[in-house]
Amino acid sequence: MCGIVGYIGEKNSIPILIEGLKRLEYRGYDSAGIGVISNERKETRVIKSLGKVSLLEDKVEQTSIDASSLGIAHTRWATHGEPSVVNAHPHFNKEETLYLVHNGIIENHTEIKAKLSKDGYEFVSETDTEVLVHLFDSLMKKGNSLLKSVQIGLSEVRGTYGISVISKNEPDKIVVAKKGSPLVIGIGDGEHYVASDVNALIGHTSRCVYLDDGEIVEITKDKFVASTIDDKDIKKEVHEISVELDKISKGDYPHYMLKEIFEQVNSVRDSFRGRILMSEGTAKLGGIERIAERLANSKRLLLSACGTSWHAGLVGEYMLEQFTGIPVEVDYASEFRYRNPIVDRNDSMFFISQSGETADTLAAMKEAKRRDALILGLCNVVGSTIARESEAGVYVHAGPEIGVASTKAFTSQLVVFALISVLIGRKRHLSLIDGQEILRELEALPKKIEKILKLNDQIEAIAEKFVDAKNFLYLGRGYNFPVALEGALKMKEISYIHAEGYPAAEMKHGPIALIDENMPVVFIAPKDSVYDKVITNIEEVKARKGKIIAIASENDNEIDKLVDYSIKIPDTIRMLMPILSVIPLQLLAYHVAVKRGLNVDQPRNLAKSVTVE
Ligand code: F6R
Questions:
Q1: Does residue 121 lie within any of the structural domains?
Q2: Nearest CA to ligand 1 atom 4
Q3: Is pLDDT of 244 > 80?
Q4: Ligand 1 in contact with 407 (CB < 6 A)?
C-alpha cells in the first residue's frame, strides 16, 4: 500500500522515479508525485498529480526541470485525507527545503500537529504524513543534521512508516527509515535506489538490502550507513534479487490479471518443482526441514491470513486435517489479535501472504510469537517481512503477481499446502501409496490447467450474458466451499457486482430467499463424493428459476439437463480440485469486469499490498 521510490547517483533521477512508480502502482493509484533536487543549482522541485502515474508522467513531460540525480517519489493509496494534489506526496516544509514520502500511518499525528502548530507550523494537507516533515524541519532548524532530525523525530512517533527524506541543505543524501512498512535499498555502482519492494529495482541492480523495523539508513551515491533509530550501529546483509524484468511485464496480454491466470500452467509447476520425492511418497521443503518433526508433533496447526490467502487457508485446513490428522483452525489475521487467542508452544501457526507485507497478518504473527507458537511463513514475495520474520517457512514460487486481484498466488498456495500435508502426513500415518498418489496428481495438474484455459472463449461468451447482473451467488461443498468464497471475491472486487459465496447446503438457511429469475448462481459441482448433494441444491435453485452456471466434470453429461451453462473441467483427486475449479471463476470475473469497461488490474479503492491495519 503506497509505493515509494528514491534514487541517488549520476543518472537523471526523473525517468528512474517515474518508471519505478509505474512498477509499484499496484500498491496504490489515487495520486502520485516526485520531488527532486537539481544538480547544478541544488534547487528543489516537486510535481504532483491526482490519479494514475501516467498522469504524473504527462505533467512531468510538460514541465521543464533541471537534471536531478537525487529524488524521491510516491504513489498513494489514501488513508488520511481524500485523494487530491495537496494530499499527494512528497510533503514539504514552508521553505520547500525538505521533501518526504511516507507509507504507513502516524497514529499520534494529532498530538504532534498540536505541538507543532503552537510553534507556528501551518498545515496544508489533511494527511497524517505532513506532521513528519514539519517535525523534522523543526529539528533541523535547531541545528541537527538531516539524519539526526529524522532519528530524534521518529522517537516521538507512534505508528507505522516507511519513509524517504531529502533536504536541500544536505543535497548528497537520502535518509530512509522503516517500522511496519517495507523498504528496500538497491545497491548499484556509484548509485543507490530506494523502493517499497524489489519490483522497482529489477533491471537496475541485482543487489539489495532489506530494512528491518526500527532501522534508519543514510544513503549517499557511494555508500549507505545503517543504524537503529536509537542510534546503535548495525551491519546489513546484502541479498541477490533473482526476478527478471520479463517476469514483471504484461507481455502481449491486455491485463496482468489475464497474464497471471494463464501463467498458472507454469506457476503451479514451479510451486512443486524439485519438491517431490516420489520414491518416498513425500515432499522436500527445505524451509521447514529443520522443524519438520516439531511440526508433525504439533498439538494444533493454526492458519492465519487475509482475503484470498485466507481462502487458501480454508482449503489448507481441509487438506491438513484429512492427511495429517492434526486439528486445524483458520483465522482471519485481522481478527486474531482482537480476542484472547488460546495459542501456546505446542501449536504451529502458518501465516499465509502473497505479498508477505499485509499489516494485519504481520500483527497476528507478532501476537502468536508472544505466545510462543512455532511461526511459519507461507509467502510469495521473496525477502518480504513475513518471510524474514518467520522461524521457518515455504515460498510458494508463483512469481511476481502484479494484478491487484490475486490469482496465481492462490493456486500456488494450494500446491504448497498439498506438499505440506504430504510431508507431515508421511511422518504420521499417511501411507506411501497414498502419498505417491497425491504427488502424481500434483504433477498432472499443469496439463489439466492447459485444458481449462482453452475454455477461455466459452467462458467469455457466458460472461457476456451476465454483464448487467446485480448479484451473484457462488455455492460449493467440502473442498469447493472455499472456492465459492474465492469466486465471489474475484467477481466483486473487479466487477463491482455484489457476490456472495456460501456452502451449498447453507443456501436453504437463508440465501435461497434471494433466488429468482434474475439471480445468477454459480455451482462448483465436480463429480466427487458430495456431487449428489450438490445436484439436489441445483434442483432447488432451478425450481426457483435461478440462472445456473455449473463448473462440472468433463465426463458429466447429466448436469447439462439441469443448468443453463456448464463449464467442463478435468477431474483430479478431491483435495486438488480447488486448484482446477477456481480457474474458470477467475476467468468469469475477469471477462465480466472487462465487458463492464473496468480496470481489472487496478480496481477502485483497492491496493495490492495492504500495509495498513
Ligand atoms: C484478493 C486479494 C486480497 C489479498 C489480501 C491478502 O484478490 O488480493 O484479498 O489476498 O489482501 O494479501 P496477501 O496475500 O498479500 O497477504
A1: yes
A2: 307
A3: no
A4: no
Domain of residue 39, CATH code:
3.60.20.10
**503 backbone φψ class: left, alpha, beta (φ>0; ψ -120 to 50):** beta
CB 181 within 8 A of CB 161: yes
Same domain, 268 and 240: no
Within-domain flag for 292: yes
Mutate to test the pocket of ligand 1, among 255, 357, 610, 612 (most ligand atoms within 8 A of CB): 610
**Ligand 1 atom closest to Cα of residue 409:** 14
Kindly state the percentage of the chain with pLDDT values over 70: 99
Contacts of 446 (CB under 8 A, 6+ apart): 265, 266, 268, 269
Tell me the CA–centroid distance for residue 269 and ligand 1, in Å: 22
- pLDDT value of position 170: 97
Instruction: Pick from 181, 406, 486 the residue to mutate for probing ligand 1's pocket: most ligand atoms within 8 Å of its CB.
Output: 406
- Ligand 1 pocket, 6 CB below 6 A? no
- Of 405, 421, 450, the residue that ends a domain is 450
Please indicate, yes or no, if residue 606 is contained in any of the structural domains: no
Of all protein residues, the one whose alpha carbon is nearest to atom 11 of ligand 1 is 307
586 lines ligand 1 (CB under 6 A): no
pLDDT tens digit sequence for 454-478? 999 999 999 999 999 999 999 999 9
Domain boundary among 247, 275, 306: 247
* pLDDT tier for residue 612 given thresholds of 50, 70 and 90: low
In this prediction the pTM is 0.88
Averaged pLDDT of the chain? 95
What CATH code is carried by the domain that includes residue 435? 3.40.50.10490
Q: Assess whether 146 and 95 both reside in one domain.
A: yes
Q: Is pLDDT at 318 greater than 70 in this prediction?
A: yes
Q: What is the mean pLDDT of residues 576-600?
A: 97
Active-site annotation, residues: 2, 608
Answer whether residue 607 shows pLDDT above 80.
Answer: no
CB of 355 closer than 6 A to ligand 1? Answer: yes
286: containing domain = 250-450
* Structural domains counted in the chain: 3
CB of 462 closer than 6 angstroms to any ligand 1 atom: no
Check whether residue 175 and residue 261 sit in a common domain. no
What 573-576 contacts at long range (C-beta under 8 Å, 24+ apart), as own/partner pairs, is 573/437, 573/438, 573/441, 574/478, 574/479, 574/528, 574/529, 575/318, 575/319, 575/322, 575/323, 575/418, 575/421, 575/438, 575/479, 576/414, 576/418, 576/438, 576/441, 576/442, 576/445
